[in-house]
Amino acid sequence: MTDKNNVPNVSQKRVKLRRIGVFTSGGDAPGMNAAIRAVTRAAIANKLKVVGIRRGYQGMIEGDFIPLKSADVSGIIQLGGTILKTARSAEFRTPEGREKAWLQLQKADIDAVVVIGGDGSFTGALTMSQEYNISFVGIPGTIDNDMYGTDYTIGYETALNTVVCAVDKIRDTAVSHGRIFLVEVMGREAGLLALNSGIACGAEVILIPESKEQHDELKRFLDKGYKNKERSGIVIVAEGDEPGGALKIAEAVGRDHPDLDVRVSILGHIQRGGSPTANDRINATRMGIAAVDALLDDQKSVMIGLDNGKIVQVPFNKAVKLNHSIDTGLLDIQKMLSM
Ligand code: ATP
Questions:
Q1: SS (H, E, C) the chain
Q2: Which ranges of the chain have pLDDT less than 70?
Q3: CATH code for position 107
Q4: Is any ligand 1 atom within 6 A of the Cβ of residue 121?
Q5: Angstrom distance (rounded) from CA 130 to CA 26
Q6: CB-based contacts of 52: which residues, under 8 Å, 6+ apart?
Q7: Can you give the CATH number for the domain in which 162 is found?
Q8: Is 291 found in the same domain as 332?
Q9: CA of 123 to the centre of ligand 1 (A)
Q10: Which residues pair with 207 in a beta bridge?
């Protein structure tokens, strides 16, 4: 429940909960700690006890639980990673694993759970809530920003800025040596990080899994560069654009244009870490409070999202089954400006 300014009304008494769990799952993302802090303090403000579940679903199965008090989440809003650790759990994908997790939650008197993660984590929560009487509310935490129903996922903006800073530096070398750099950024199935970082860096070409036509753009750029003897440029490659990623594309470019000095830079895990941006902290804080609010409102299996700046609730089954579509208009902008 929210007031007219869209500020969750945390003081109103609703369903009777005593103890909630909170955990992070899947890939870590900057801002997860800000979300843990907000969930913990909003719950305490509503007289709930809070249990931190460590190491995602694997920790849930093993009963790796710690009580969270207000002081335990002090000084973490600015930290990357997750103080609760995260994991990927094959065991939780099995009915036996989920039964163990359920028994652990019961043993710890946990009535409802906030899960901070991506679509895999929400699929797991949805499956378990269909099998057992337990409410899950999700907070989207993934640097891919690929969840349907929310404009932002926690960590995306920080990762975007990390990529932009790195590519700006790579460009200095590209220009100085007259090289073409293929810079691979994260995004196995989602190219939003690649697309927006490419726009922000003025990349000459952006290759994303959502648009195969971009390979024609790469060909045009390389042919033009060859003829004009203009031999430097940045090509952003989403890791999921092609099996083998930027390395494989560089091999093909090297074969077709042996005269060009082509290099590959794979940004890798630096994209996940670091202190969250102000916006990631603010979004994580708002979503954390809204998640507790949703549980108190007896919501089950919903993800908290942001739609045009407003907090919304999106059913898990929609959030995980539908894709966050790419604004292909951004590709047109990039093409027009990289003449
Ligand atoms: P990221 O976007 O960073 O990859 P994610 O939440 O999508 O985050 P996954 O590795 O896909 O990360 O999922 C996290 C965990 O959720 C898995 O390790 C598994 O324990 C659980 N999970 C995922 N899919 C299912 C499923 N279909 N059934 C049960 N549990 C699942």
A1: CECCCCCECCCCCCCCCCEEEEEECCCCCCCHHHHHHHHHHHHHHCCCEEEEECCHHHHHHHCCEEEECHHHHCCCCCCCCCCCCCCCCCHHHCHHHHHHHHHHHHHCCCCEEEEEECHHHHHHHHHHHHHCCCEEEEEEECCCCCECCCCCCECHHHHHHHHHHHHHHHHHHHHHHCCEEEEEECCCCCCHHHHHHHHHHCCCEEEECCECCHHHHHHHHHHHHHHHCCCCEEEEEECCCCCCHHHHHHHHHHHHCCCCCEEEEECHHHHCCCCCCHHHHHHHHHHHHHHHHHHHCCCCCEEEEEECCEEEEEEHHHHHHCECCCCHHHHHHHHHHCC
A2: 1-13, 225-230, 339
A3: 3.40.50.450
A4: yes
A5: 21
A6: 21, 22, 23, 36, 40, 65, 66, 67, 68, 72, 83, 84
A7: 3.40.50.460
A8: no
A9: 7
A10: 237
Asked whether residue 264 falls in the same domain as residue 195, the answer is yes
- CA–CA separation, 35 vs 141, rounded Å? 9
**The pLDDT of residue 331:** 86
pLDDT of the residue at 230: 58
Per-residue pLDDT at 83 = 98
Distance 321 CA to ligand 1 centre (A): 13
- Shared domain check, 137 and 16: yes
The one-letter amino acid code at 274 reads G
Read off the pLDDT of residues 167-195 as tens digits, 9 standing for 90 and up: 999 999 999 999 999 999 998 888 999 99
Burial 22-47 (b: 16+ CB within 10 A, else e): bbbbbbbbbbbbbbbbbbbbbbbebe
Residue 56 Cα to ligand 1 middle (Å): 10
Same domain, 169 and 238: yes
Structural domains counted in the chain: 2
51, 133: one domain: yes
Within a domain: residue 322? no
Best probe residue, ligand 1, of 85, 116, 121 (max atoms within 8 Å of C-beta): 121
pLDDT at 187: 87
* pTM (two decimals): 0.93
Residue 178 structural domain: 156-270+328-337
